[in-house]
Amino acid sequence: MLFLPSDLDRSSFHAAACTSLGAFELRLRIAHAYDFIASLKMSLALKAATIQSKVRNARGTRNNIVAQKEVSQANQAVVHLAKQYNDNHRRMKALATLLKGSQYETTIPVSLKTIDLAKDLAPANLHTARTLGDSKKTDSWIFSVAPPGADRGQVSRVRWVRAWANFLRTNEEVNLLYAEARAAHTGFLTFARIRRETAAAKSEYASRGATAYALQKAAMFTSMAGDVLQRVSKVTATHRAAMEKDDDRRVAYSLTQKLIIADATRLDYGVVSIVS
Fold it and tell me: Which top-level group of life is the source organism from (predicted)?
């Protein structure tokens, strides 16, 4: 049978020279304790949801029996997790005692405590969780426990959400710009083509003045189509400069540009090439 360092008493622990192994096991159990806490939070929230569902929806004996069975199953899952956590916590305390005074001495975080099965397993207050967040809950200390570095993860999530929102705004701006540019560019080239066709009419149907006027208009519309490309290029450069000043929007802008370049159907007549 294979024993873990936490299964040994003091004399067996030191006789087997399990100090380093015990230190690694303690670190793993501390991390496992935070996993148990996270699972307990979800289980308590599920228990609260089943109780809330029973109060709101269960009508009649049969429905109440079914709803109560769901509540009992949720409660059993909570108690089972709490007992596993307590066993893990007991082993943590034993290992911390065995390692005390050695080079591997480790302190258990004060936020990790033994769970009182009678007092600490109250159902979650779903209203508080939705309005203030789990950290503001007062019905159990379990909801105030978070692993080290959890705040950094929250900050990263907030920054990701902001960057994604900026990406959507940037993409919308670019879509509108390119849609308007595509319509204007295509329209000007169409007008230019019509004027050239008019200028190519037989002389008996059009005077020299009318032909010259048509050619002049064709040149004007062709020039205006070129102006659209220049304006889009200028706006793109300005937009890029603005994005480079914002860390959160820089990634969003680069993603948007990749979408523009990849989608060759956004603009006709080579407008896409100006952003490559």
Answer: Eukaryota
Contact indicator for 180, 188 with CB cutoff of 8 Å: no
Burial of 125 (0-12, 13-18, 19+ CB in 10 A): buried
Sequence ranges of the domains in the chain: 5-148, 154-275
In angstroms, the CA 157 to CA 115 distance is: 30
Give the span between the Cα atoms of 95 and 24, in whole angstroms: 10
> Residue 234: pLDDT band by 50, 70, 90 thresholds?
confident
End-to-end CA distance of the chain: 66
Residue 136 gets which letter from DSSP?
G
Q: Tell me how many helices (H) and strands (E) the chain has.
A: 7, 0
User: What is the pLDDT averaged over residues 197-220?
Assistant: 75
Model confidence, pTM:
0.52
Distance of CA 184 to the CA centre of its chain: 38
* Angstrom distance (rounded) from CA 50 to CA 68: 9
Average pLDDT, the chain: 76
CA 134/CA 146 separation, integer angstroms: 10
Is residue 87 pLDDT above 80, yes or no?
A: yes
